[in-house]
Design goal:
The protein is mainly α. It has five helices and no strands.
Amino acid sequence: MADEKIFARLKEDHEKHRTLLDQIEKTHGDSDGREELFERFRTEVMAHAAAEEETLYATMLEKPDLREDAQHSVSEHKEIDDFLEELTKKEFSSPGWLPRFKEMKHRYLHHIDEEEEDMFPAAAKDLSQTQEEKLASKFEQRKPKELERAAEAEFDSRE
């Protein structure tokens, strides 16, 4: 996987996220799997976002033509982070949990679609194949560390 380009690697994660989102949406308030699936999604997305920001976005921020896209995506990561914190604090069986989750899902799907359709192609024009491969390698090194950090991150008590 070390020779894989950064965009293919990020899209691979996005597909995992889409699958988890669909699985979570099919759960019911009293189902045992909701909290477990959501925790997998939360840690995966937090780790993905941090590693993405430290690799691709950091490179994009250095390039004037790509800086605005990177800043926009970082702000969307913060928005998703806020949703994740809110959903983690809520009782998973509460009637308001699933509607709020669906709102977060909609925002997240918008974000990754925007990345894949607009941002990645724009960034690819400015990066050489070697740069893309280096970023993918750096992402692979960074993500496991970010997964550990995300798994350890706990939000305050539930509402």
